[in-house]
Design a protein that fits this description.
single chain; Elongation Factor Tu (Ef-tu), domain 3; 3 domains; three-stranded antiparallel beta sheet; 21 helices; 14 strands
């Protein structure tokens, strides 16, 4: 399993470091607040829930610092495409950017829950100690007045005995921003589920922009200074370990213990998130500038199965195989941007995308382009951005697997190969390509029939028939289609597609396919590229591990999946 294991363990190591930092920060902060003299009196009211709240707050700051970095797509494309230090192993980690983004979000949710629960206990204890009349230390500390001319004398944020926790929550900066951040976080996380993202992309898109309120709330959350500690000057005048037991003597002028003075901790969250926020703002400014450059639509093609092809030009646009762009149509929605893989080759003088009807926005876009006597809708484009498919020509052998419209990145690759053959490019490292296209209906195969036919003819002319081994699989079929195909099996071309390669019915037997490839290329590095569903990714990843040799000098399979 060789290099596959190296990549796997590199990812595991990265996650272990991140998890380890979370644990370290939590434990370190917990112990700090449990032992710090500054919070001795605060602990007399709140107990250990003070340390839980502060430790989880530190972890929230740490993860909020990280949450925006995986979605800085221009930065990731720069690292992927231009940095010489990005080895194959490191570049593969960049492909997991959205996975890491989700994991960080889940960690934020976890620490948010801990933070909220701890503060619920804290406010309950603040309320009980404020209402207490037993003359205990906690009740004395809670009764310290908010009206002192000297700043920072109070410790309990609940000023009066009849003040409710709800009142403090919605009238303090910390409480109000906490509620806003929690609501924003709940909406963002629930709308980012797989079902909503695929079925109601607009809901996901709009609610995810509530991150603005989350970030702003986090930046000002600590301004109120509700959690307070004893000042350094007050500690020097009377150490809490000595003076806590003689609190009745605090107002005695002859006593060496003076009434303690308290102050709020300066807000720290903004220090954690400032740099990532600036980086993200620069990213958005760059993307806005690119999106405002004029896009000229040169050709519109309607394919079967409700698929729209747009061919476009844009000044200064430069792409690599397998990259994707974000597309906006202002006449449909001013704010919605949807990702689409480029289906054109870098060698072409235009760039193209194929759009399948898969929701309100795409259906409205296709409908707008179908109207014959209406002006062509204006399109804005942001990108291109890098993906795993960019690395396809770095492998001696490439296995391309597309499911339905997931064939689009491989159309770009196959077109580029055709142009490389035309120009007799001798620098092409790739010696063999296996291409698998799995579709539910026969009409889908017509999207790139012309491309596959051209490749067949070109490879025959150059004597490279064995360079491309492609298989087409039809998963949605009935007995009539199978019978029709069987009756015409002896014909030179396939009855369904018109290609020389016959269409197979059902799904590939991946163990057989990988076994054959491993046997045919016993000492090659094989890149496996998928644009398709998660279940298929799971099967292919297992096959990559299973059929990679433990000997690094023998066959190695590297799994790559499109993520955008």
């Amino acid at each position: 399993m060789g290099n596959c294991v190296v990549n796997h363990w590199f990812s595991v190591l990265f996650l272990a470091v991140w998890l380890g930092l979370n644990v370290f920060l939590f434990v370190d902060a917990f112990l700090k607040y449990e032992k710090a003299d500054r919070y001795y009196y605060t602990r007399k009211i709140l107990g250990s829930t003070l340390a839980c709240a502060r430790a989880s707050a530190l972890c929230l700051n740490f993860n909020s610092m990280l949450i925006l970095l995986p979605v800085c797509r221009s930065l990731l494309s720069f690292l992927r495409g231009t940095c010489s230090f990005c080895s194959r192993t490191l570049r593969k980690q960049l492909d997991h950017n959205l996975t890491f983004h989700k994991l960080v979000a889940y960690m934020i949710c976890l620490h948010t829950a801990i933070h909220i629960i701890a503060h619920l206990f804290n406010f309950d204890r603040y309320s009980r100690s404020r209402q207490a009349t037993d003359g205990s230390l906690a009740s004395i500390l809670s009764s310290l007045s908010h009206d002192e001319k000297k700043g920072g004398s109070w410790l309990n944020p609940i000023q009066f005995r009849n003040t409710t926790v709800e009142y403090v929550t919605f009238t303090s900066i910390a409480g109000l921003t906490g509620v806003i951040m929690t609501i924003a976080l709940i909406l963002m996380v629930t709308s980012a589920t797989e079902f909503i993202r695929r079925s109601y992309f607009e809901v996901f898109w709009y609610t995810h922009h509530l991150f603005i309120f989350y970030i702003l709330g986090l930046g000002i959350h600590g301004i109120g200074g509700i959690v307070r500690g004893q000042t350094e000057e007050s500690i020097n005048e009377g150490h809490p370990h000595k003076c806590a037991e003689s609190f009745e003597m605090w107002y005695d002028h002859d006593s060496h213990c003076r009434r303690p003075e308290f102050e709020g901790q300066p807000p720290e969250s903004w220090k954690w998130i400032l740099a990532p926020v600036i980086l993200y703002i620069c990213e958005r400014i760059l993307r806005f500038y690119r999106s405002q450059q004029k896009v000229v639509i040169t050709k519109v093609v309607m394919h079967p199965s409700k698929v729209l092809e747009l061919q476009m030009n844009k000044r200064g646009f430069s792409m690599e195989v397998g990259q994707y762009i974000f597309v906006n149509c202002p006449s449909i929605s001013l704010l919605e941007w949807h990702p689409f893989t480029l289906t054109s080759a870098p060698e072409e003088d235009f760039f193209s995308i194929h759009i399948r009807a898969a929701g309100d926005w795409t259906e409205n876009l296709i409908r707008a382009f179908e109207q014959q006597y209406s002006p062509i809708p204006r399109i804005e484009v942001d990108g291109p951005f890098g993906t795993a498919s960019e690395d396809v020509f770095q492998y001696e052998v490439a296995v391309l697997v597309g499911a339905g419209i997931g064939v689009t990145p491989f159309a770009s690759i196959l077109k580029s190969i055709w142009y490389k053959f035309q120009c007799a490019n001798h620098n092409l490292k790739t010696k063999k390509i296996y291409f698998y296209w799995i579709c539910r209906e026969t009409g889908a195969f017509s999207w790139f029939n012309d491309l596959l036919t051209s490749l067949e003819q070109e490879m025959e002319k150059l004597g490279k028939v064995g360079f491309l081994n492609y298989r087409l699989f039809l998963t949605g079929w009935d007995s009539n289609i199978v019978g029709h195909a069987a009756l015409n099996f002896d014909k030179a071309t396939d009855i369904l597609t018109g290609l020389k390669q016959k269409t197979s019915f059902g799904r590939p037997m991946w163990d057989n396919e990988f076994s054959t490839i491993a046997t045919s290329h016993p000492k090659s590095v094989v890149g496996v590229f998928l644009c398709g569903p998660r279940t298929l990714a799971k099967s292919l990843r297992k096959c990559c591990h299973r059929y990679s040799s433990l000997d690094p000098r023998k066959v190695q399979f590297y799994f790559n999946k499109e993520n955008f």
